[in-house]
Amino acid sequence: PSPVPTAVTMFASERVPFPKPPRALADRCYTVVAWAEYDTGGHFAEVAEPALLACILHVCLLPASVPKQTM
């Protein structure tokens, strides 16, 4: 899998021409660090659920912003 940490978020009203990807497939191809599915939102999550999207981004990106300590 790709070594890049990957977060997957799926919103309920997403309109895409393919089915929801299975978690096992994502795990084989990516380093999945977060996986979430929501009953609200849609393709434009920043319009439909701005507070939820902001929280998701904060939780996923916060670890990357903390400097690693060296010993």
Write the layout of secondary structure elements.
Blueprint: E1 5-10, H1 23-29, E2 31-37, H2 45-48, H3 50-65
Parallel strand pairs: 1-2
User: How many DSSP E strands?
Assistant: 2
Largest sheet: 2 strands, parallel
The share of residues in extended strands comes to: 15-25%
Strand order of the largest sheet: 1-2
| Cα shape | flat
Radius of gyration: 14 Å
Number of helices: 3
- Please give the share of residues in helix: 25-40%
First-residue to last-residue Cα separation: 29 Å
Structural overview:
The structure is a single chain. With about 70 residues, the chain is an alpha+beta fold. The protein has helices at about 25-30, 45-50, 50-65; strands at about 5-10, 30-35. A two-stranded parallel ribbon has the order 1-2. Strand 1, helix 1 (about 25-30) and strand 2 (about 30-35) form a beta-alpha-beta unit. The longest helix has 16 residues, at about 50-65. The radius of gyration is 14 Å and the shape is flat. The termini are far apart. The mean pLDDT is about 80.
Tags for this model:
alpha+beta; 71 residues; flat
Gist of the model:
By secondary structure, this protein is an alpha+beta fold. About 40% of the residues lie in helices and about 20% in strands.
